[in-house]
Amino acid sequence: MRIVILGAPGSGKGTQAKLLSEDLNIPHISTGELLRAAVSAGTELGIQVKEVMSSGQLVSDDIMLGLIEERLGRDDARDGFLLDGYPRNLVQAEALDELLSRMGIPVEEAIDIAVDNEQIIERISKRAELEDRSDDTEEVVRRRLQIYAEQTAPVSAHYSKHGVLTQVLGVGSIDAVYSRISAALKQADAPAS
Ligand code: AMP
């Protein structure tokens, strides 16, 4: 299955994406993780994106398209994938549609995890203590949430227009949210009666 998972920073989408990819046996492709790995390894890409990421801004659409094109072209993505963190704006959503239609493998499901901003700030402060991410300070989190509202939220409407969007409430335990997502996917997969 080819799935895009959407949700604000701190919505729990990374955690849910990991669980889903294990259950469905498809690669979890997180652009944030790919970029953080490049920064840690000190590659040319890592050096290019380090400051932009630390400030909470988005990396350029061109760089991201190159990265995602290379990753989706690998063998393990042929039978399905779960995209987490891409697309992040409408330009990326359209670029992804074009890329996947060229490859003959369109997105089948987009899952949007909804959580309100106050809960997100609380969750991210906890994550900051655990993971030591340079973009998890309160000021940067607020900027990331603002960018999310302005640029990423419209991506849900894009998938809704394509008839593949399911919205899931992201409050409650990890298991509770996961059950909602699984139920939504089963329903989306069932033949229409
Ligand atoms: P994430 O782990 O998905 O929250 O991503 C962490 C950071 O990586 C973001 O705040 C951006 O700076 C960068 N990033 C990840 N995915 C993208 C994307 N699709 N477009 C632009 N920047 C991205």
Structure summarized in a few sentences:
This protein is 60% helix and 12% strand.
Report what the structure shows:
With 193 residues, this protein is α/β, with parallel strands linked by helices. The protein has a single domain (2-189), classed as 3-Layer(aba) Sandwich (Rossmann fold). It has helices spanning 13-24, 31-41, 44-54, 61-72, 90-103, 117-131, 138-161, 174-189; strands spanning 2-7, 28-30, 81-84, 109-114, 165-169. A five-stranded parallel sheet has the order 2-3-1-4-5, sandwiched between helices. The radius of gyration is 16 Å and the shape is globular. The protein starts with a strand and ends with a helix. The model has no long low-confidence stretch (mean pLDDT 92). Residues 9, 31-32, 35, 52-53, 56-59, 64, 85-86, 88, 92, 135, 144 line the site of adenosine monophosphate.
Helix-strand blueprint:
Layout: E1 2-7, H1 13-24, E2 28-30, H2 31-41, H3 44-54, H4 61-72, E3 81-84, H5 90-103, E4 109-114, H6 117-131, H7 138-161, E5 165-169, H8 174-189
Parallel strand pairs: 1-3, 1-4, 2-3, 4-5
